[in-house]
Amino acid sequence: MHRAFIGLIAALAATSAPAQQPPLRTGVDGTFAPHAMPILSGGIQGFNVDLANEIAKRLNRRIEIEATQFSGLIPALQAGTYDFLAAPVTVTKERADNLLFTEGYLNTDFQFLIKKGAPKIEKLEDLKGKTISVNKGSAYDSWARDLEPKIGWKVESFGTQSDAVQAVLAGRADANVAGNTNIAWAVKNNPQLELSYLHSTGLVWAAPLRKDSGELRKTIENAVECMKLDNTIAKMHEKWFGVAPAVGSAAVTVFPGYGVPDMPGYDPTAHTPSCS
To answer: Are 102 and 258 a contacting pair, CB within 8 Å?
Structure first.
């Protein structure tokens, strides 16, 4: 009887204990420094790796982060391979028509770098007659070429963003344009360079989920909002990009509702972040 009683208690305890939630599954582009990049000893590191790990910590969930090519991330999310994407994804109307997005956590703008001590760039027209280096085939390449006749600059394309930066160091280009976080990373790691003109796009990076993941979006967004309020994202911004986020930027601003305002899938329901 004694053994049976103990067995009954154990069975009751097992059935009353909450089932452990499965790990969150997410993906990143593992070659997109400084957001996700290889570690020599194995694994990946970067701003978005830290972001994903912190989200999981605040949700009290384990997380599995897979590094793969960016082109395969959204199809894999839609197929159910991932619960959300930790890779930085620009929120556009076309994407928001097919996905749910959390609120933005970083602005995605175009920024120039120049050699330290070079003339300051206050506006695009200051680059008339100058040579601009870009990563061949990137959004910055097509943008700069579209403006070539208007601004009067010369665009030189290079096989990698690293080569485009080296062109400025070698004097083959007067400035390099790329995403603001990539440019900040390059300047952080090279004292011969400095940040220059920032061209605002008005767009943000946010975490995409499938359309049927409304509740998970709420919990992830709550974690992101709390990370903004306690300056966790701001500290990560300084760690990986070498500069503090701008006042009013997505890294430090909690937005109303769920998702990105004025985009499909936005839920204006008012809420207060619940932060422990």
So the answer is: yes
